[in-house]
Amino acid sequence: GVSLKEAKERGQLVFLEGLGSCLNVVFGEEEPEEEQEAKQPHPLQFLRTSFSSSGTVSDLRALFDFVRTALAPAAGDAWQGRVLLVDELGVLLSLGAAPVAVLDFVHYCRVAVCSRLQGNIVVLVHSDEDSEDKENELVVTSMCHHSDLILWAEGLATGFCKDVHGQLKIIRRTSLQPGGQHDTLQLYQYKIQERNVTFFARGMSAAVL
C-alpha cells in the first residue's frame, strides 16, 4: 500500500538499484582519472578494486559513505525515524566482499543510523540449515546475535500445503535490553495471497478447521 515512486518524489526514499549499479561498475566505460577524482566514489566501487593477496576485495567504505550521505538530515527536514533497508545482505558476499567487510559495513551503519540518528535498520538474509556456505552462515549468525527483533520465515516441516504456505517466528531479543530476562518467541503460520498475506496461529487455518 506504499507508493515508492511518490516516496522518492517527496524525498522520503533514496534507492540504490544494486543489479544495474553492478553492471555499470563492471562493464561501464572507464572515466578519465581526473573525472574520477572529482566525483564521489561509486557505492559499489569495491567491484573494481584488485584482489589482494588473501583473495578478498577491499572494504565497503564507499557503500557506507553513500548510506551516511543519503540518510543525513537536511536543513528543514521534518522526517523523523530514518530506516535503512538492505535487501539482501548476502548479495555482497556473492559479489566478492569478505564476511568481515560485510559485518564491518553493518556495524558502521548501526552506529550511524541507530545510535546517531535514532533510526532502525532492516536487513534481509537467507539461511539454510543444510547449506555449506560457511561465509553466509557466519553473517546470518552474527546478524541474529546483534538484532533486537528477528522475523524468521520458513516452510512447513510437514511439506507443501496449498492453504498454509509457511510459518513465521517472531523473536524479540529482550535479553539485549537492560534488565531483560529471556527472549520471547511468537509463532504464526501464513498464506500468501495475490495482494496480501494472511497470518494466523499455528493450526488455526480455516482450511484446516
From TrEMBL:
GO cellular component assignments: elongator holoenzyme complex
CDD domains the record matches: Elp6 (cd19495)
Pathway: tRNA modification; 5-methoxycarbonylmethyl-2-thiouridine-tRNA biosynthesis
Signal peptide span: none
Coiled-coil spans in chain: none
Gene Ontology BP term (one): tRNA wobble uridine modification
Matches recorded under InterPro entries: ELP6, P-loop_NTPase
Residue stretches spanning the membrane: none
Source domain of life: Eukaryota
Homology family: Belongs to the ELP6 family.
Record protein name field: Elongator complex protein 6
Record organism: Crypturellus soui
